[in-house]
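ARCHIVE CARD
Drawer: 12
Card no.: 0347
Subject: one protein chain, sequence and derived structure
Cross-reference: see card 0346
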Amino acid sequence: MNKPQRLILGLSVLLLVDIIRVSSSELTKYVYREANFKKPFFSTYVNTSLLTLYLLGLCFWPPWRDQCLKPPTYMFIDSAIEDDTYYLEGNNSLSDPTFVPIKKADQCDRSSGTESDDSSIRAVRFSKLAEVRHMSESDATEALLARLSYQASIRAGEHARRQAYKFSIRKIAKIALMFFFLLFAANYCYQMSLAQAQTGIVTVLSSTSSLFTLILVTLFPSMNSDKFTLSKLIAVSVNIFGLVLISLSNVKMEMNEVMTKSIILSTASAFLYALYIVFLNRSVDHEDRMDLPMFFGFIGLFNLTFLWPLFFIFHYGHWEEFEWPNSRQWTFLIVNGLIGTVLSEVLWLWGCFLTSSLIATLAISLSLPMSVIADVLIGRIEYSYTLYLGIVPVILAFTTACLLSYYDNWDPVIDLFRYLYSWLSRKNRNIRIPDLEIEQTEFLISVNGDDHEA
């Protein structure tokens, strides 16, 4: 898949994730307010634990099941380092010999009709047992590849390299163990802020994740598209400015203790999301190296296994009293978890690998304009012109970030400054040159006049 195809596919996936997140936000608000179950920790724990469903693939998905039963091995022999010691008996991978009986020589002669009538010729006697050795599976695979055609061997070699390039199940589990608490903390802070403040304010503050991402990828780059440019900084600033215009047009924000706490939690969630995506990109440089559903399956398993003691801490610390939801509340919690976490997280991370960390975090901010457009088209709701004016910079910033990601070494703002500087320098030179010519002309005339008088 070439770069334009990857970018188009990644943008399509991220836009689909925005649609899913808009629906998930509405379900979350319904659970907290209409269903009267304002338990952010319980909701986050259930939503993240539902990711364990992906581990069912270890039982039913043949490639994963085969890795559990017998991890595949892929051997590549470099002809440059190959020597005669490879073929010594010490490196022989044949099994121990077994002896099986064979047909007698006279039976073979009768069956083939080659029995000789000349009794004076001395017959050759063969052993009645045949020595049989079996090749190992890896050597048998290599022997099979050696008998393939050239094109078939090329395809088989590429497939083997892709499989050998992938992380093992143990490696994926280790990466999930490193990041499961970071993802849980980011989601919990977001759920806490959503339970206390309006959705528009939370979305604006969560959009600052793109600014944190830009700073972190500058300090810890993982690919060429993560390079810091002044154009990216301006694009992120324009995106945040547009979201502020959208929120101020229909959100009344009264500063109090609850609002201050919500602002802190939303900002913390944005920073934790930036940490999660940037350092995960550094650990996994390409989406083909790791099975994303398996990774999130281990995320859910570690969340389910290690975080349940926090229920006692939150309950007896009077931060969130434990309450078992009723059947109606369970229904909305599970539906919201399946849509907003199980499906959304995998698609969002896949879109991030296909594009870049900055584009993935900027795509989160598109959920607010998309919800506004949906309200206008479906709900027939009228908004002020300030809101529509704020949608323009959000979309413009996202489009600019996509172009900057496609052209890695392009910084149009710096190019504009260089052009203006060169233009001003050239203009100043054009102003000074006529004065210099006048001075030189007067000097030459005066010299000629003195010579003439002399």
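Annotation on reverse: The CA atoms of residues 155 and 161 lie 10 Å apart. Residues 74-91 have pLDDT under 50 and may be disordered.
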